[in-house]
Design brief:
This protein has helices at 3-14, 379-382, 397-404; strands at 30-40, 48-58, 65-72, 75-87, 90-99, 105-109, 112-133, 142-156, 165-166, 171-184, 194-206, 210-214, 218-220, 223-236, 243-254, 262-264, 286-301, 308-321, 331-342, 348-362, 365-378. A hairpin with a 6-residue loop joins strand 14 (223-236) and strand 15 (243-254). The chain is globular, with a radius of gyration of 21 Å. The strands form 2 sheets. The protein has a 16-stranded antiparallel β-barrel. The protein has a 3-stranded antiparallel beta sheet with strand order 9-12-13, with no helix packed on it. By secondary structure, the protein is mainly beta. Helix content is 6%, strand content 57%.
Length: 408
């Protein structure tokens, strides 16, 4: 397998983490296919892409069981949720996740992707989660989560890893997460409605710590502590169908290393449960010890049926860098725009866009450009006829024309 293939699979695997830490068992039946890709127009960068199949089945085998699966190439994330396991509003989840390239690390420093300091990682483990609903019967749910997870990581050299670069030791990490989430957001590319205020803590305890890198110039901390919170609102105006999304996320940490730092960059909405997007930047380009990030997106429909729309987005973030990856300036901003299309019945939708990283460091100075593609296919909605009665199905060749060039 080539280095580029390995990076691509690593990116595809890593994005399944978006579903690994939900704050409650999802009560809705879902069957989705999600794809996303960001392409920098200058410089060498880690692959920024995801492709996965997401399935959520309430009443699986028994009425109190829910099965959740997120499947990407060489990676699987799953959880079996048991409703009312301890009390009427207390649920338990048992999770298993892992696969190839899941723990790959890419070093990006001052706008440069350093392949000589990057390496491949594989891993997996299991978790037990406790979900508690604190306000049953209320319109906006308040959920609490407590999770204990064991995760093992195994590292190997890439073809471009420097010969004198010492890899970190294979290790097992014990993660403890607790949090409160008021409201929430569905796992959709562009939600029509969402509201969330949440606060979280995660503690990480590692085995086999020590130095690695060039002559031991960096180290793996035995314990790291992360604290973060998020407030978001997504709303669609009923008559005009204008959609807006605003998000404020901030976080800090204690004893964070390269593996536990907050990573900001890229424009992929399902890159993580808490995506820290920066338009125009490389994927996870910025490593931060603490940060504050404010972003927004506005969608303006171009037709009465809201099939075509113009999207505009902007994000700004203030960061305090992790040790060893500092760079000039502590403020980063990016803007972007694109065209969105939704099919009848919203069975699938696609966004094609452009982004500009205003403060990103490149060889020519500040500023970087990228283009991207997002695609969501909702198999549940597709069960409704994709074509109106009497409509000529050969009109679907427009989709074949759009994607045909990728497979020729």
């Amino acid at each position: 397998m080539t280095r580029s293939q390995g990076i691509a699979l690593a990116a595809l695997a890593s994005f399944c983490g978006v579903f690994a830490a939900q704050a409650q068992i999802d009560p809705s039946k879902r069957e989705l296919i999600q794809l996303g890709y960001n392409l920098p127009l200058e410089g060498s960068a880690p692959r920024s892409a995801y492709a996965f199949y997401y399935l959520n089945i309430p009443h699986f085998v028994r009425t109190n069981l829910t099965l959740r699966l997120a499947v990407a190439p060489v990676y699987l994330d799953s959880e079996l949720g048991v409703s009312h396991a301890i009390a009427p509003h207390t649920d338990i989840g048992f999770g298993v996740a892992g696969g190839g390239f899941a723990d790959t690390y890419s070093e990006v420093r001052a706008g440069r992707y350093l392949r000589s300091e990057s390496f491949t990682g594989h891993g997996g483990g299991g978790s037990v989660s406790l979900y508690q609903l604190f306000n049953p019967g209320q319109r906006i749910p308040l959920n609490g989560v407590a999770r204990l997870e064991s995760h093992s990581s195994f590292y190997e050299r890439d073809t471009k890893t420097a010969p004198d670069f010492i890899l970190p030791k294979n290790r097992t990490t014990l993660n403890v997460r607790t949090g409160l989430r008021w409201g929430g957001q569905e796992p959709l590319m562009i939600p029509d409605f969402a509201m969330e205020i949440s606060a979280w803590y995660e503690g990480q305890l590692r085995t086999r710590i020590g130095s690695y890198g060039f002559a031991g110039d960096r180290k793996v901390e035995q314990t790291s502590h992360l604290f973060w919170g998020r407030a978001l609102l997504a709303y669609t105006l009923t008559n005009w169908h204008h959609n807006f999304y605003v998000n404020l996320t901030l976080g800090t940490s204690l004893d964070a290393d390269r593996f536990s730092a907050y990573r900001l960059g890229g424009v992929l909405p399902l890159a993580a449960e808490f995506p820290l997007t920066l338009p125009g930047y490389y994927f996870q380009e910025i490593s931060a010890r603490q940060f504050v990030l404010l972003g927004g997106n506005y969608s303006l429909p171009l037709d009465r049926k809201d099939r075509w729309a113009i999207n505009a987005l902007a994000t700004t973030a203030g960061v305090d860098y992790s040790p060893g990856v500092e760079q000039p300036g502590h403020w980063h901003s990016g803007v972007g725009g694109g065209i969105r299309y939704r099919s009848p019945h919203n069975a699938w939708q696609m966004v094609v866009g452009y982004a500009y990283g205003i403060d990103a460091i490149r060889t020519t100075g500040r500023g970087s450009h990228s283009v991207g593609l997002l695609l969501q296919f909702d198999l549940e909605r597709a069960n409704v006829a994709l074509f109106e009665p009497g409509e000529n199905p050969m009109r679907s060749r427009g989709l074949q024309r759009i994607f045909g060039g990728f497979f020729q």
